[in-house]
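Hey, can you fold this?
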Amino acid sequence: MDQKINVFVWDMDETLVLLKSLITGTYAKAFNGSKDVQKGIEIGKTWENQILRICDDHFFYEQIESCNKPYVDAMREYDDGLDLTDYDFANDGFVGASFDDDDNKRKLAYRHRLIAHKYKKGLRSVFGEKMIKSWDNLYEVTDDFTDKWLSSARTCVAECASGTKDVTPLVDSTSSRTQNVNVIVTSGSLIPSLVKCLLFRLDDLISYENERFNGPNVQFCAIGDGWEECEAAENMQWPFVQIDPGPVSTSHRFPGLTVETLGHYIGVVYGESDDDDDDDDE
């Protein structure tokens, strides 16, 4: 029997990462006075400033913002493999606005290659301990303010990948017949999205590569907070798990959402795993 693949399609913003609702104050306001709205706004704006600074200073965002691509490897065909060890990105003549010529495409490909390298290595390979400690403190403050939303969401994604914690056979990635994959979708630009993955500790769980999944053994499950994600999932005939950061909701939230629940949604749409039936036939 061919290996079954479960693809968990995660919406980033306001699902795995709470940021916009912190900046606007809507997250804290939903708790009717039990959370400090101004503190939430300050936390959100601190994140926003850090993300934009890192994007510009270390991921070429100011240079390549006008030529945004859907994924890092989009320019690979223009990369001639030049050794970039001593390459002078600041003075190579790259002009993001003049993107149509092959010379600029090649230079953009170089930038994408370095971005991919930094993403794979992680923030700790790029920045000093003082800066890392500052981001860790901000993460912990945010996680505490959001009642462990960030860490719980990360744990759920990790369990989807590893198949730990009493998962059902349907989503058990420890089975030789099943592979679990996490992917992220977002309406945001590529570079800020990658930096968010790094800062919110998702980079070791989410690959930067653009993978395609198709075939009778592939099962999808979409998880998100908006009607756009819901409509897209319905059009694809995928199960959709609705997320709502509010304190009182009929939808799912973090902490709370589990791998078992995701497995139930998959089972409803695709049917239960046939592993047990196969075992009976052996």
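Oh, and this one too while you're at it.
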Amino acid sequence: MNMMINTLQRFGRFRQLHTIISQETIKPSFPTPHPKTHVLPLVDSINPHHHMPFIFFYNNYNAGDINILKKSLSQCLTQYYPFAGRLLSPFAGHIDCTDEGVEFVEVSHDSRLDDFILKKEKGKSLQELLPNINQTSPNLVEIQLNHFTGGGVAMVVSTSHKVADGFTMLTFVRQWAAITRGGSPIKPYFISSPTSYNNVKMPDVAYKTISEVKYATRRLVFPNSKLNELKKKVISMGISVTNPPSNGPSRVEVLTSLIFKCAVDAATTNTGFFRPSSLFHLVNMRNKIFKNDPEKVGGNIITMVHEKMTDSREITLNEVVSKLRKGKMEIKERNVEEIGERWENIYSVLGADPNLQIYYMTSICGFPTYDVDFGWGKPVHVMFEIPEEDNKIVVFIDTPHNDGIEATLHLPEKDMVILEQDKELLEYVDD
């Protein structure tokens, strides 16, 4: 009986039965050159050892490709050498680049591919597609290839935030796919710090784990046609900051504002009173800091726009958009060291206010998410699964045909129940 429970359970949730076909550790095709230690810059050290699972669904998988997949992964890991290393503790300031490799698991499911990509409440079912990932594992990358009844696969690549942001992870998977098709790998550049930030631990706002609060994950699709209506509404309300003046707000900016406002409203309704709320919006800094070949720079090259709202009257659609745009204009960081210092300063301020509600929002819209072709054609759907933790997180990703934005929301369950009935939000959701 205990063996059956262990088979079914992951992250405390029961999963459908699946069968492990194979499990193998894939090592780099060539040994990592000296030094064998990759010292993390401050921005990587501050980021938690939380995994970011991306799920790529394909209809036309060729079963003869598995050995080619493993060989090309081995070649790719030679270039992305920190990914094959080990983080000996969640707060270690360096990675041991000892070429221990990446776990590659092949699994078969009784479910069909459409059971996942067509399901309305996808957040409840995706966990069974994920590799075993947790904060105590020293592994930095985990891969699971899921086979479905009736054909098709889901390729899951999960990377630790210690070594990669979303852009780095997607670049890695695209390179792996290109090598599988016979292409040549690029050599990325990972920034190594001259100073070790060993045992850096930021306030609990950065490292929350599961608490007694139950969280729920939902996915909502916002068509471009409705986002354009939302843009017009925000513009009609008046935006105090435009850059350049002729530019209106982006899809991501207006959707960030809408979801933040509705999430705070739901929390206020749930508790009966307003709590000061902060919006964290992540910004990719590669093009600003690295003018030449920014796509080759690995790690966490991201900063944040942070806006704290202490009065509920501040949280209007146009005011949140104005603050976001103003925050982006005020970003001054010129290098990776200054980005790390910005994270450190903001977290230390936030750690002093335990009553603050924090909403983390990030977008990978515009990234080449649907260009990941292993020789099976482009994915029919790509999803991001938010790690199971005690944080309010929203992730935006383009829809498969680039005709809208799919938002993955991870919020307290009681707030989510209220949010799902919010007419202001539902007005812009796909029917």
